[in-house]
Amino acid sequence: MYAQEVKSTGKGVKSLDEMEPLERAFQEKVNADIKIEPKDWMPDGYRKTLIRQISQHAHSEIVGQLPEGAWITRAPTLERKAILIAKVQDEAGHGLYLYCAAETLGVSRDQMTEQLLSGKAKYSSIFNYPTLTWADIGAIGWLVDGAAIMNQVPLQRCSFGPYSRAMIRVCKEESFHQRQGYDIMMKLCAGTPAQKEIAQDALDRWWQPSLMMFGPSDAESVHSAQSMAWKIKQDTNDELRQKFVDQTVPQANYLGLSVPDPDLKWNNEKGGYDFGEIDWEEFFEVVSGNGPCNADRMAARRKAWSDGAWFRDGLMAHAHKKQARNVAAE
Amino acid sequence: MSNEWPLWEVFIRGQHGMAHRHVGSLHAPDAELAINHARDVYTRRNEGVSIWVAKAGDITASAPSAKGPLFEPSNSKVYRHPTFFDIPDDVGRM
Ligand SMILES: [Fe+2]
Ligand SMILES: [Fe+2]
Ligand SMILES: [Fe+2]
To answer: CA A56, CA A95: separation in Å to the nearest integer?
Structure first.
């Protein structure tokens, strides 16, 4: 999802009997829902998987500011502008909570930044699509934050304490994001035919990428099974995707918009919607760097980092000088 | 990428009369900016009336392995809890 490409050590899940005493004590704690804290013993794979997952999640929050940030100067009213600024600022906060959670595992902030800027670390595929109209800001809040909530709610129960606590803070703030987006969609759909048209167009473009946010089908994945045994992950990608579709289709109906999927059909037996095959080829293209905006997003992050260098260094130099002065005065 | 800002732990008093509570951490060049950043990162929705920051490196934490020696001794001292003592109902409220 926000961490779509997380691979844990792919050896299959060990049973308690196969484990050495330390690992076994660890797994028993996890099974008993006792949180793992940074200084506790943990398997190497658990640490590595979490660093990858949490840093990818953090990068997604940070890069995720770009598509919406592009509309701050063009918001239709002063109120919408203030709301959008607050929303984007929240996403910066989410990134910061998450970076700090990852740092407790022994990776530094600069290392993570370096991994993002060099292209080594991934972020969610969804943020590589362009925001072409104001309706895209509505669609992002409604669909993208909606999908994020679907994924983040179970992460509040993650076995790693700092990640779980970061997710609790994030979830408290996400509901505002989704509602402000849906509110934009409601306004547009109650507006002129041209306004309703851009709302439909935004749904047409964001629907599939939103479903891709949950990641590929994990039926065959060893990694996913290990993450579930470690309680880093609670539900499969497909379960969450299904939940998202079931929740979102009625919301589209309420708006009078049609979901762009000819295979979408209510299935009475399973009590959920059947939906069409997702274009995984597109997904893997976007993840591997060939989406419509990958180059722009990376360029924007690199520019922000290098343009800000003199400022970060200047403040640090000032702090050292002030400290030296204080020592001298004592 | 060497000149990384140090890490600060952030504590916030949520309401008057409550204790400061650890809410998370952040990077800042000095204490003054750490407070400013903490305001932006941790109190965007009126979560606080006061902020403390402390350099993460200045905090000493107990080791997880010291859990036994530190905390087990109090397990056996059940008489520290009022419920240890049976007081007859006839005595009235106590
Ligand atoms: Fe977020
Ligand atoms: Fe988000
Ligand atoms: Fe959000």
So the answer is: 10
For chains A and B, count residue pairs whose Cβ atoms are closer than 8 Å: 52
Question: Hunting for tokens 């990068």 — which residue is that?
Answer: A59
Distance CA A283, CA A117 (A): 21
Closest CA to A130 of A76, A201, A185, A183: A201
Q: Of A248, A256, A260, give the one whose Cα is nearest residue A193.
A: A256
- pLDDT given at position B1: 43
Closest C-alpha among A74, A95, A96 to residue A85:
A74
Taking only the tens place, the pLDDT of each residue in A223-273 is 788 999 999 999 999 999 999 999 999 999 999 999 999 999 999 999 999
Q: Distance between CA A281 and CA A263 in Å, rounded?
A: 19
pLDDT higher than threshold 80 for residue A1: no
CB of A322 less than 8 A from some CB of B: yes
Q: Using one digit for the tens of pLDDT, what is the confidence trace for B13-45?
A: 998 899 999 999 999 999 999 999 999 999 999
Q: Which run of H or E residues covers position B82?
A: none
Window 83-102 of A: residues touching B by CB (8 A cutoff) are 86, 89-90, 93, 96-97, 100
Q: Which residues of B touch A109 (CB under 8 A)?
A: 4, 27
Quickly tell me which residue has 């800000």 as its tokens.
A308
Does A168 lie at the interface with B, CB-CB under 8 angstroms?
no
A293 — pLDDT class (breaks 50, 70, 90): very high
Nearest CA in chain A to B44: A90
Question: The whole model's pTM is what?
Answer: 0.92
Please compute the mean of the pLDDT values over residues A308-318 and round it to a whole number.
96
Q: Cα separation of A234 and B63, whole Å?
A: 30
- Position A215 pLDDT exceeds 70: yes
* Residue A91 per-residue DSSP state: H
Whether residues A100 and B4 touch (CB distance < 8 A) is answered with no
Tell me the domains of chain B and their CATH numbers: 7-61 (3.10.20.520)
